[in-house]
């Protein structure tokens, strides 16, 4: 890329402990005053930084995992060029995860929650559980509100009254009210998801999230109006257009259709067995051999609180009994058992403290979910 400079590595002078690179002088990307004196476009530099990482991650699957300002510099070549230093920490993304990321882009672009969930399963981020209803509803909620939130952000920037285009700050009460509305809208589904724990984030994603967090901070330092989502969106659309025009998508679509038709033809000869099996299940339900379990999230939360309270009370009773026993033994000069009783009493007292904290957390979570916090 014309706007990226990767220093040459001198392998004959490089060891597992020392990385010897070509000398390429530049100005640190966070030295705003020096960049202005150099005459480069800071807004364009912020966009270049994000686009270069999208290219590294999505196109090549190999990226610089430590992009702090000390490792990114700028010179005046080609109107302002990014120079990356220090390749001691690199991240790699396998083909399966890269394809999953692109499929996730497709799903978000088409507002298809099933495609998004399928891509997350492909990447290993989501582990299929018995009941995926709550996960799907949550995905649908975020897809429906994604465009609305982006439009609201653009509107806020347009209506900003500050000279540099800062968004009008919300009052404390308005921020609390918005947070309550969001939590009340998706609280139930998020609680169901957390109970099943279906998400497993690969270690590589930690480096990806960290890299984009650092880039977001660098971008805001270069340009107060910097918005990483606005920069990533056109790049993602270009990827979508490229893949939509490729033979790979046509073949993949043909393969899916062929598999669907094969399953339909195979199932055609199994309908009689399925009807018989369905009748058998209905008969077992009537006889009481099968039981249906209905999940009530409100009852589950209430049972969790009752169980925590009961355990805390039990520990408190045990602690009280032990301290009485220890005191009696101590007064009767039976020292060793008395000290042991005091130790056990202290242990139960700590459990009581943890139990009280857990009950308070459950109460706070209940208030957040119901929107009464």
UniProtKB/TrEMBL annotation:
Domain ABC1 atypical kinase-like intervals: 2-119
Gene Ontology biological process terms in this record: membrane lipid biosynthetic process; regulation of response to reactive oxygen species
Entries under SUPFAM superfamilies matching the protein: Protein kinase-like (PK-like)
CDD domains, alphabetized: ABC1_ADCK3-like
The keyword Membrane is assigned to this record: yes
GO CC terms: membrane
Record keywords, A-Z: Membrane, Transmembrane, Transmembrane helix
Keyword NADP: no
Transmembrane residue ranges: 313-333, 339-357
Family: Belongs to the protein kinase superfamily. ADCK protein kinase family.
Name of the protein in its database record: ABC1 atypical kinase-like domain-containing protein
Organism: Stephania japonica
